[in-house]
Amino acid sequence: MSDTVMVGQTLGHFRITARLGSGGMGTVYRAHDEKLQRTVAIKVVGRETSTTADDRAKIVEEARASSALNHPHICTVYETGEIEGQAYIAMEYVEGRPLSELIPAHGLPLEAVIRYGAQIADALEHAHSHGVVHRDLKTPNVVVGTNGRAKVLDFGLARRVPQNLTEADTRSSDAVAAPGLAGTLPYMPPEVLLGEPGNERSDIWALGVTLFEMSTGELPFKGRNDFELTAGILRSPPQALPAHVPAMVRGVIQRCLAKDPAHRYQRAGEVRAALEAIQSDIAIDVRPARQVSRPVPWRWLAAAAVLMACVVAGIVWSRRERESIWQNAASRGHLTQAMPSDTPIYEPAISPDGKMLSYVAEDANGRVDLFVRQIAGGALVKLTDDAASERGPRFSPDGDRIAFTRQSAEGGPPELRIVPSLGGDPLATISGAGDAAWSPDGRQLAFMRRTAGSGIELTIASIDGSNARGLLQSDSAYPFVRQPAWSPDGRDLAVVRGTGGIAGEIWSVPASGGTPQRLFTDAPEVFADSPVFTPDGFGLIHSSNRGGATNLWIYPLNGGTMIRLTTGPGPDTDPTVTRTGQVAFVNSRWRNVLELHAMDGNGSRTLVSHSPFLWGPAFSSDGTEIAVSRSEVDGSWHIWSVPVSGGTPRRLTATEGGEVYPRYAPDGQSLFFHTWKTPRRIGRVGRQGGRAELLSFGDGNDAFPDVSPDGRLLLITRTEKDAERLYVAPSSGGAARLLTTTPGALGRWSPDGRSVAFSGNRAYSGGIFVVSPEDGRSRRLTESGGWPVWLPDGRRLAYLVARPDGRQEIRSVSIDGTPVPAFVAIRFRGTNHPFAVSPDGKWAATTNSVYVSDEIWLLDASAVK
Length: 865
Prior knowledge:
Low-confidence stretches: 158-180, 284-317
CATH topology of the largest domain: Neuraminidase
CATH architecture of the largest domain: 6 Propeller
Radius of gyration: 34 Å
Helix content: 10-25%
Strand content: 35-45%
Structural class: mainly beta
Mean pLDDT: 84
Distance between the termini: 77 Å
Oligomer: single chain
Number of helices: 10
Largest sheet: 6 strands, antiparallel
Strand order of the largest sheet: 1-2-3-4-6-5
CATH class of the largest domain: Mainly Beta
């Protein structure tokens, strides 16, 4: 049979009725299916494309695989075959025009770009889920029917290009690929040009090219010949998108066109979800036209004065109304579950218009990535997909951008990134910063940055990091500063200041600079966390355990009574709010465990499981018991004793200030601790419990005791005005003497009492030091890490290090510099997990967190209006 099929001729049971066009794979005809009595399109594969029987068989086999696809935006393959050496493919006939013919010189209207783009992405998602990759997606392979619906042609049928290729006109979407490759050159991604087979991510690149072409009327990469075009795709950025392309669409296109496949969307469904979210915004975002101001005639001034009086009265009424709304939000507000999760999810952010949620989620392998999804439902958009860990997403006031913290898996300082809300290349990156909050006008960010000496500083800067100025520095009284939030009028920032662990107080700092003020005071065992202002300026939503369980509360900024927003067992954390008063938050449930790990790596077992926190275990001198700090549901802390062999834990302490950080005396008859309440005091209690004695070492704020091997002396960490330092004092009380003039904390006596190990600070960045208790001479063993523990041989120290992924691990170091074996591998969740080693060196005791469930909930305060 000839390569040219005549009109009126039959091909099997198909009667050819018209020639529709030709391309690199052959000629397409309209035909009538005499068997099923329907109109079809027949693609007759040209012999110059399928030069051998094997080529023709492969094309037919690929078409047959595509025939399994059944989707409204995919042109259905009905039948494949070969007659007299001529391969043919019978397909659904679509009445319409190729998308390439519909794109005007400057691109399609935005609504059409999004509609067709979402339909094409939906088609790709369906095909990919069935194991079919297109490999030659381009605008000529998309037909828009008379009903306005896009249909993608030729799934799985990448073009085979003849070997005698000459110069291609790269301004046209009909340009062909380089010899030996499959596809069309202007739509081919870098990895395919470098010889890798096409896959789902290469289809997503081609979709990005298609979106670019629909938006601009041009292709993103150009060249006078194939060589220049190929070089541009491999090495150059795409052409700049014109100003009429919105930022969110621009971000979607840029992410599709990432050179590295790992940085693109990983599923076509994510592209569809991103475009549908933009489409939803376009459908309802109708803003009034800007009005031209005119002079106000004098005769209206009197009326304006009357109106102003009414406005003042209205303000008073509005304040009362707002207070009533928030007071009734818990009992009458509409509470719905936005999404459950079977993996840990953290720190949700709701967009200002209430349509989208961004959050970070952890997979089974411990990787943490950033996601966006529509609250109304639909596919997830995965904004990051790499080994780095992401935290703290926050939408910009216009909802077009997201700021988040990224911590590289290779270590180094964190960085603050700003990206389009639906994906794309970073718009700005600020190194050494994290924990961001947007100013109300979207022009500035407040964030935390590390400063010289490993301090933390609340900082304000432009969104590119320029014009930075510090507002509040951490100090010895408050070593931790976190979670800034900007007031709606932009005048103030709320921030959490903490002394360690879960302790937190909410302070207000003027954005212009000035003296910080604590907003409210609770009992010592109560913490306040995660502040966010209500959009009407009425109050400050935050998470607190002041009611027993951890729930959401509002502090009225006019000084009124605290309002409880959520009830139940909690914990309810990480509130975020829309401009209309919807509050999204996480109900996050974890168990805390006390575990024993064999130092030789051969097994572990759980001794205690507890809902609130367990922290800071210590072995008794005979190794039969472990004392641990335990938090109760009301937020108080006490010390409990747990038998190593198993059995019922016993509570040992019950002072008014709470007790943490137990340490057994060498004779095993008593324990030392420090109070949770500040100023901290050192206390002692008998091994069987009972009345505790608070010791006096002067007027210092003293904590973290450690007892010398002979029981006569204590190492204590004293918080002074400018830093924390180590002191030595009699174990029965009395005057303390300074041991380290430089900052230091968490001192531990060596087994022989001749050395003291300590941390540079209470974080995990200060490094490990040893000092002589006699002459005070110290030397540094490690550059980073903290919370040292002597191993029984007295020649090695184990210590904690914060990993780049935000977790924690234990390492060990020799005091004489000799190599040491790796410490037993323990996978901690988060940080702040001090540990202990048994006197015989066989066991490590740790506390850890075990995931139970996470759910994101929405509380709609507007429902009580």
